[in-house]
Amino acid sequence: MDTTQRTDQQRSADRRRRELLEAADRVVLRDGPGASMNAIAAEAGITKPILYRHFGDKGGLYAALAKRHTDALLEALRAALDAPAERRERVESTLDTYLAAIEARPQVYRFLMHPAEGGQPGDAGFDVGKYSAPVLRRMGEELAEVIEERVDLGPGSQQLARVWGHGIVGMMHAAGDWWLGERPCSRAELVRSLADLLWGRLAAAGDRVGGPGF
Amino acid sequence: MDTTQRTDQQRSADRRRRELLEAADRVVLRDGPGASMNAIAAEAGITKPILYRHFGDKGGLYAALAKRHTDALLEALRAALDAPAERRERVESTLDTYLAAIEARPQVYRFLMHPAEGGQPGDAGFDVGKYSAPVLRRMGEELAEVIEERVDLGPGSQQLARVWGHGIVGMMHAAGDWWLGERPCSRAELVRSLADLLWGRLAAAGDRVGGPGF
DNA sequence: ACTAAGCTGTTACTTGCGGTAACTGGAGTG
DNA sequence: CACTCCAGTTACCGCAAGTAACAGCTTAGT
């Protein structure tokens, strides 16, 4: 059992793992997140216990699957966030990047965020909430870091940045989710509206006739 | 089968339904959202098929359960939203109402929003994502109405109000979720930070040294 | 008073999924 | 050849959702 031997085995196992993940991806994107382990195994051309050897349990598989997509999304967001441009432009570009991603692959988005909606009615789905929350948390933390790093917020800036990081991510997520479902306007309009909100247009707006406004 | 007869039966059925919902509530709050129909039936002192007669399927039961809590929360929010005060104060009071609610009854909150986290590891929970989303949607729509009604946003105000409604609700939700998990600061501080964000402090803040800030 | 609904409630079952134990066959190694 | 790994299989367990079929009680109709 020398080192090269072990490396070979690991390599092989890793390649297998990737194949399995790709098969799982296909099934989940086709059948929704209620996809059974049996179905995934069948798609991969093997049987259940192998999946369990590789991923431990269904949670492990889904976590691995979610991690792939999450990492890809975060990569794209980081690029928009770190681009050399002024603040408003970067905010808009980050929002647009996120929205473009969920628009381009709504299946992936639904898997990451709203796992159960793909299943048949009456199907007791597998709860992927455990894996969607981390996505938003990670985005929130990353955004917080960027804010803390580049915006001068005075005393208590670190905590403020974290609140804002999570808050802004949540705003983006909820608005995106609603938009994806109803498509009430173009992506560009949505981006602009959200950026306007962040830019204090709510505070600046006047009251409507009839008492103090919201 | 005259009318009074039918009314009596309906009354009885409604009362029974309420009792069942209360039992379900107890179980879900104690055992987490992975609670089985058997357990709920046992708590109510009856057996499964009766639950199915009343609620159709597990989704129906959970929907009814969620509706109760959702309605209660929305009621409280409406009160804060409609209070006679100026805008910033009402925004803060609404945020605080929401946060106070989730702080006071985290179990209910977790049931509505993150159903699976209460289960044992390895437990394939029942996905309540289908019922949490409507909560946020409803809050978003209500807020949108209030904004549209009372804030003067110029042309395209209706659409803008809806985007903002959902966006603000998402911000509140995400920040609240994070805060509830980590408790990094007091509720009042969180409210203040979020209101500041909404009041355009992000736009107003200066860049940190070293290039354009976020 | 006797029967026929129609209600609430039960037991006992099916189906389907996550997860596991135990066996099988082949590839490399002394 | 015997030994050990390891990918892979079949066959099973446990458990939860959901259902069929049956049992008793109350009430209406004649």
UniProtKB/TrEMBL annotation, chains A, B:
InterPro entries, per database record: DNA-bd_HTH_TetR-type_CS, Homeodomain-like_sf, HTH-type_TetR-like_transc_reg, HTH_TetR, Tet_transcr_reg_TetR-rel_C_sf, TetR_C_32
The keyword DNA-binding is annotated on this UniProt entry: yes
Organism field: Streptomyces triticiradicis
Record keywords: DNA-binding
Keyword tRNA-binding applies: no
Stretch forming the signal peptide: none
GO molecular function: DNA-binding transcription factor activity; transcription cis-regulatory region binding
Name of the featured protein: TetR/AcrR family transcriptional regulator
Domain HTH tetR-type: 14-73
Top-level taxonomic group: Bacteria
DNA-binding region range list: 36-55
